[in-house]
Amino acid sequence: MRRILLIGLFVAARAMAADVGVSVNVGQPGFFGQINIGDVPNPQLVYARPVVIHRDPAFSGPALYLHVPPGHEKHWARHCGEYHACGRPVYFVRDDWYNREYVPRHQHRDVDHGHDHDHDHDHDHDHDHHE
């Protein structure tokens, strides 16, 4: 009986550990996914030309701007599906530019509009892919 109780506690502890999540919003350090360049001038890009994997002839919209973890842009065919962007032209913004320019501008804009990301815990954002 004691062994069953210990196994049950172990399984419950593992299940609780698996439910722990981190929510990172666009415009915060550590966010990876699509960003809205908007009025941010001269984004610094990893490549000057957009990258496209399996061009979708039905797509005619603008290129996406993505902030991705280091190395994802080098192996884009392996990672484009994670971002739902295999058939779309993609510009990769540089990590240092994102953290130095985009994050402060985005956070300043949100504070001006009454949004404080530190108190925005009610929203569950997919921290890897979407804005």
Helix content: 25-40%
Arrangement of strands in the largest sheet = 1-2-3
Q: What is the count of DSSP helices, taking H or I runs of 4+ residues?
A: 3
- Cα distance spanning the termini: 49 Å
List segments where confidence is low: pLDDT < 50 over at least 5 consecutive residues.
5-20, 115-131
Report the sheet with the most strands, covering strand number, pairing sense and barrel closure: 3 strands, mixed
Shape: globular
Report the sheet-strand fraction. Answer: 5-15%
Structural class computed from helices and strand pairing: alpha+beta
Mean pLDDT: 74
Determine Rg (CA atoms, Å). 19 Å
H/E topology pattern: HEEHEH
In total, how many beta strands? 3
Summarize the structure.
By secondary structure, the protein is an alpha+beta fold.
Task: Give a written overview of the molecule.
- By secondary structure, this protein is of the alpha+beta class.
- The chain contains three helices and three strands, in the order αββαβα.
- Strand 2, helix 2 and strand 3 form a beta-alpha-beta unit.
- The radius of gyration is 19 Å and the shape is globular.
Keywords:
131 residues; alpha+beta; 3-stranded mixed beta sheet; 3 helices; 3 strands; disordered C terminus
Detail the topology: elements first, then pairings.
Layout: H1 2-18, E1 33-35, E2 64-67, H2 76-79, E3 90-92, H3 95-112
Parallel strand pairs: 2-3
Antiparallel strand pairs: 1-2
